[in-house]
Specification:
Blueprint (H helix, E strand, L loop, with lengths): L15 E5 L3 H12 L3 E5 L22 E2 L9 H23 L6 E9 L2 H16 L4 E4 L1 H5 L11 E11 L1 H14 L3 E3 L3 E6 L6 E5 L4 E4 L1 E4 L3 H11 L16 E12 L2 H7 L18 E4 L2 E5 L8 E5 L3 E2 L5 H8 L7 H5 L1 E13 L6 E6 L2 E5 L5 H17 L3
Parallel strand pairs: 1-2, 1-11, 2-7, 4-13, 11-19
Antiparallel strand pairs: 3-6, 4-6, 5-6, 8-9, 9-10, 12-15, 12-16, 12-17, 13-14, 14-15, 18-19
Helix pairs in contact: 1-5, 1-10, 2-10
Length: 403
């Protein structure tokens, strides 16, 4: 049964589902389930707060929205399949949302820079693999990179351009999915969940909220990132009642903090950055930036919602733990010492940070059925926005497999 987002009115066979977690994966799952005709309740305390808050801990609310699907280093396996499926779903979802007056800003194109010889060799291998698959990839020489205005980091030796990758505005995506789901009947609750447990009678699950109230549903989806780990730990400590959870390696999510900056560049710089990306075969004459530029894991992201504007996102750092490191932020600010002068002259408009749940000892993301009616969709680490559609589709498929 397809779970691509086709609307279906509620039927007697529709399921009641509680989704815990209001990040992009939770909201995408709630949206798809609701559009498919299920009765969905989305719970997250941040649903009642300002999603633009600079101190918001959610990874999704601090994301840059970079879609690195085709430049993924592997060409097979679950990770590759999830990325390809998500890229396809984002296109269909965006079209569907735009048709209902909820567009999401998108800019295609991603240029991955090589900082040393071994990285340049890896890019050449990746290029050959992608071209065999018929994907729109091209190698950019040092001379081509030096012709780009404004200048890229001078140490770059070459680059790999992926025309099908790019970036969407993560805040618009969250708002579009949430408001569209609410229009279809989604119930949202700005509350904190304190415990989860199986229903005392019959199948299904119940959640207890911070105010003491208890809610029940046939299915429970945990998409709460780091917070979901504590809910599962409390469940497993309940003895007989927690024994319903499938035995396996203990869930451990490590908090990894990412810092990001919004910069305002000079008008002449903004004009070049805001140029539309060139066609794949036009890389001999490059008018400006081709889209997102990635340098040693740091992303320079032209704001897709402000074409020709002067704002640029720069992110993000990778820091263990929950506390931001000023040295890591400074390294981000100057691209590890490789920032061109125009970037150093840019004015910092704001800075923010977010926690990412990285699975320990298990591949990301965690898409698992822990017990009948209990699904885990978490641990997406750096790819929550990219992988949200495929993860939501997996959730929907699990729920509908019981129909």
């Amino acid at each position: 049964m397809s779970a691509s987002g086709t609307d279906r009115s509620q039927t007697p066979s529709s399921r009641s589902v509680i989704v815990v977690g209001g990040g992009i994966v939770g909201v995408a799952s709630a949206w798809l389930l609701q559009r498919r005709g299920h009765r969905v309740l989305l719970i997250d305390p941040a649903l009642g707060s300002d999603s633009s808050a600079e101190t918001a801990p959610s990874a999704s609310r601090a994301a840059l929205g970079v879609l690195m699907g085709h430049v993924f280093r592997r060409s097979h396996g679950r990770g590759w399949q999830l990325r390809q499926r998500s890229l396809a779903l984002w296109k269909s979802w965006s079209h569907s949302l735009a048709s209902r007056g909820r567009p999401i800003a998108y800019r295609s194109g991603l240029l991955l820079l090589a900082h040393d010889g071994p990285e340049l060799e890896r890019q050449q291998t990746l290029l050959a693999e992608r071209q065999k698959l018929g994907l729109p990839f091209s190698a950019w020489s040092l001379e081509q990179l030096q012709a780009i205005a404004p200048p890229l980091p001078a140490p770059a030796l070459g680059g790999l351009f992926s025309a099908a990758d790019g970036q969407i505005d993560p805040h618009q995506a969250l708002e579009a999915l949430h408001s569209d789901a609410c229009a279809a009947g989604l119930t949202s609750l700005p509350q904190s969940v304190t415990t989860i447990e199986p229903r005392r009678r019959g199948n299904g699950w119940q959640v207890r909220l911070l105010d003491g109230s208890v809610l029940e549903a046939e299915w429970l989806v945990l998409a709460a990132g780091i917070e979901g780990q504590s809910l599962l730990a409390a469940l497993e400590s309940q003895g007989a009642r927690g024994a319903a959870v499938r035995a396996g390696p203990p869930l451990k999510l490590e908090p990894v903090l990412g810092q990001a900056l919004e910069l305002e560049v000079e008008a002449s710089v903004a004009q070049a950055i805001g140029q539309p990306p060139p066609h794949q075969n036009d890389s001999d004459t490059i008018p400006g930036w081709p889209g997102v530029v990635v340098w040693q894991g740091m992303c320079l992201v032209p704001r897709p919602d402000l074409p020709g504007g002067r704002r640029l996102w720069l992110g993000s750092s990778l820091e263990p733990g929950r506390e931001p490191d000023p040295a890591a932020l400074q390294s981000l600010r100057d691209l590890g010492g490789a920032a061109p002068d125009w970037l150093l002259r840019a004015r910092v408009v704001r800075q923010w940070q977010g926690l990412r749940p990285r699975p320990f000892g298990r591949p990301a993301p965690l898409l698992e059925c822990l017990a009948p009616g209990l699904l885990l969709a978490s641990g997406h680490y750096r790819n929550g926005v990219l992988l949200a559609p495929a993860s939501a589709e997996w959730v929907c498929t699990q729920v509908e497999s019981s129909l």
